Automatic annotation (TrEMBL):
The keyword Membrane applies. The keyword Nucleus applies. Transmembrane segments: none annotated. This is GTP cyclohydrolase 1 feedback regulatory protein. InterPro entries: GFRP_sf, GTP_CycHdrlase_I_reg. Keywords: Cytoplasm, Membrane, Nucleus. It comes from Characodon lateralis. It is found in: Cytoplasm, Cytosol; Nucleus membrane. Belongs to the GFRP family.
Length: 86
């Protein structure tokens, strides 16, 4: 899986950070220390970490991901990252 999205609420830029969905690479989620949660009323799961986005981005860079884009969507910041296939 070469692409990844991470996000956080602007008011919560110190964490937590959403790092994936139910189809995310389990090895990457484990490396980040993410926990899988399903919010009541949602029919999908998400992975979250307590770390702020800056620390998550640093960790992902160490395993080969780089930022492709960053955007604001309402009160949410979203980063798109890419990792070259090995």
């Amino acid at each position: 899986m070469p692409y990844m999205l991470i996000s956080t609420q602007i008011r919560l830029e110190s964490g937590p950070t959403n790092v994936g969905d139910e189809f995310s690479d389990p090895a990457v989620m484990s490396y980040l220390g993410a926990r899988k949660t399903t919010i009541l009323g949602n029919n999908f799961s998400e992975y979250h970490v307590d770390d702020p986005p800056r620390l998550v981005l640093d960790k992902l860079e160490k395993i080969g991901f780089h930022v492709v884009s960053l955007t604001g969507v309402g009160q949410t910041l979203v980063w798109c990252l890419h990792k070259e296939k090995e």
